[in-house]
Design a protein that fits this description.
By secondary structure, the chain is an alpha/beta fold. It is built from six helices and 14 strands. It has one domain: Ribonuclease Z/Hydroxyacylglutathione hydrolase-like (Metallo-beta-lactamase, Chain A). The protein has helices spanning 52-55, 58-65, 73-80, 139-147, 164-174, 194-201; strands at residues 3-8, 11-15, 19-22, 44-46, 68-72, 86-89, 94-97, 100-106, 117-123, 126-130, 151-155, 178-182, 206-207, 215-217. The structure holds nickel (II) ion (NI) and manganese (II) ion.
């Protein structure tokens, strides 16, 4: 049983035999479900790209819990300078971080350092795709064919990422039967309607709309 908790914006927690955080932007996040001070245990912290609303509290959580940061090379160089355990990687690669396998895939987006990326996380026999920030791209078709993710997190906030219409198209490519929308409703400019996304996806997949703090069991 994998417990998937939405923490607001693009921040998620996966809790199985290991505890994984992805893009833990909590301090300064008006929709954060938990304050970083409340996090006492983590094995792996994954950062999809070097933007404040994704890097967030990653270093502070890793320092406090002893978790390993998994990210693109340029982020890991910075994290290592803070004395944090790291697993550096790049797009196309796979690492095993404390028993959690992380595959890094393309994302169409910018970043302060290195490139933006998405990840497929393999934990307890399940494959979870977190797209990070990205526009719609045919590469998602390859991600669907090759990885067949059981569940996918897709940004739907528009402006900086896909919006409801393009993200609904992405669902056709990714082939996940379960989709959780992220990166919306956090601040002005990304306040799209997840119900519109769900409507557009229709019967193609189950769209699971989580409020910050809610948990879905896979
Ligand atoms: Ni970004
Ligand atoms: Mn973002």
């Amino acid at each position: 049983m994998l417990e998937i908790t939405y923490l607001g914006h693009s921040a998620v927690k996966l809790k199985g035999t290991k505890t994984v955080f992805i893009d833990p932007f909590l301090s300064g996040n008006p929709k954060a479900a938990i304050s970083p001070e409340k996090i006492t245990a983590a094995d792996v912290v994954i950062v999809t790209h070097h933007h404040g609303d994704h890097l967030g509290d990653a270093y502070a959580i890793a320092k406090k819990t002893g978790a390993v940061i998994v990210a693109i090379h340029e982020i890991v160089v910075e994290a290592s300078s803070h004395g944090i355990a790291t697993e550096g990687m790049n797009i196309g690669g796979t690492v095993d971080a404390r028993g959690v396998r992380v595959h890094m895939v393309t994302a169409l987006h910018s970043a302060e350092k290195g490139n933006a990326a998405g990840v497929i996380v393999e934990i307890d026999g399940k494959k979870i795709y977190h797209a990070g920030d990205t526009g719609l791209t045919y590469d998602m078709r390859l991600i669907g064919e090759f990885f067949r993710p059981d569940l996918s997190f897709l940004p739907i906030g528009d402006r900086y990422t896909m919006g409801p219409a393009s993200a609904a198209k992405a669902v056709e490519f990714i082939r996940s039967k379960k989709i959780i929308p992220i990166h919306y409703g956090t601040f002005p400019g990304v306040d799209t309607d997840p119900q519109e996304f769900k409507k557009r996806v229709g019967a193609k997949a189950d769209v699971i709309i989580l409020k910050p703090g809610e948990t879905y069991r896979l």
